[in-house]
Amino acid sequence: MSPGRIKATVLACHFAGAFGPMGLPPFLGLILVGLAPDASERLIGWLYIVPTACLAISAPLWGRMADRWGRKPLLIRAQIGLAVSFVIAGLAGSLPLFVIALCLQGLLGGTFSASNAYLSEALPRKELSQALNLTQASARLALILAPAAVGFLIDRHIVPQNVYLVIALLPVVAVLMLLPLPAKSRSKIEAAADSAVPLPHGRQVLSRGAIMAGQTGFTLAMISTFPFLVPYSMKAFGIGAGTAGWLFGLPHIVYLFACLPLGRHLRDRDPVPWFAAGSLIVGGMLAVQAVTTSLLVFAMARVALGAGMTLGYVALNALITDTIEDASAGRTFGWFDSGAKLATIAASVGGGMIAASGGIGPLFFAAALCGALTAAMVMLLRGSTAFTRSAALK
Fold first, then answer.
1. pTM for this model (two decimals)
2. 2 pLDDT band (50/70/90 cuts)?
3. What's the CA angle centered on 103, arms 101 and 105, to 5 degrees?
4. Quick one: 291 exposed, middle or buried, by C-beta within 10 A (0-12, 13-18, 19+)?
């Protein structure tokens, strides 16, 4: 099977696996009406992050098992795990069983890191960074389309909890699509030779710890305002929920169009300064959103934030690709996915605390500060021999 067909299949299956986790959480309040009519907003907030927390725990373990038992079986396992958890959630007759289903979604899922690990084994190293950009793109596309699709199903008088049963069909279809893929499309000799290809002259390779620190700061800057952006923009500019939803989605739409051109542009360049630039743009645009009273300026800032987000994620994927070794790719992707999920939880909880105590304005500025500090940190680490290694030693 050709690398292009393998990549297309894995990306389509990743989109199918991401559809439920991206589309269903915004409707938790409606879903819980039948299970816990008196559920508080605090409970809904905690349930929102339960799958993420469980995934942060399980991702490194599944990654290690993928390295030992094979990337394809573990990728199929992740899709089956999602399907099982969705069925249990859709059939749950009590709140405790529903919470167990959410835990299983995180513990048995992990399609993002599993897809990336399989692609690292199936594709030449020079194509891996762009493939990682595309798995991010499939997640962004799901983030845009899935809530609208779930809302459409609910508007058609499907009981909100039963939507889980409908969505469970997607990972089942993904499993059927994954079965024909080769278990291992490249020999160990080919993979070793690919890994031995030197990086471009002068390119810095950050340590995995330094990359994880940069990923954490970037995630804190990006995610902390997510839960509050729609209600804030509706109140600040007097717009409807539909318009506010488009404002929320603008950065992700920019990513869909810009990730591949930027990936090609950065292919032979040192990604560290570009990651710092992306973090700085994100921070600056968050600050603009905090102070502007103009809907047009706010929308333009969202578009510019999308450019910074794209630049940051594309450069981050290039940094991660530089550290991948064939024998431990599953474990490496598992740890990076776990780190991103922990940072997402910290951003959600911390953002809620700042918004509750100081309001949305201080939250935007705190997120902007995270972006600026992340940019400064990665540039400082780039200049330290303790956190870099020579490209010649790659």
1. 0.86
2. confident
3. 70
4. exposed
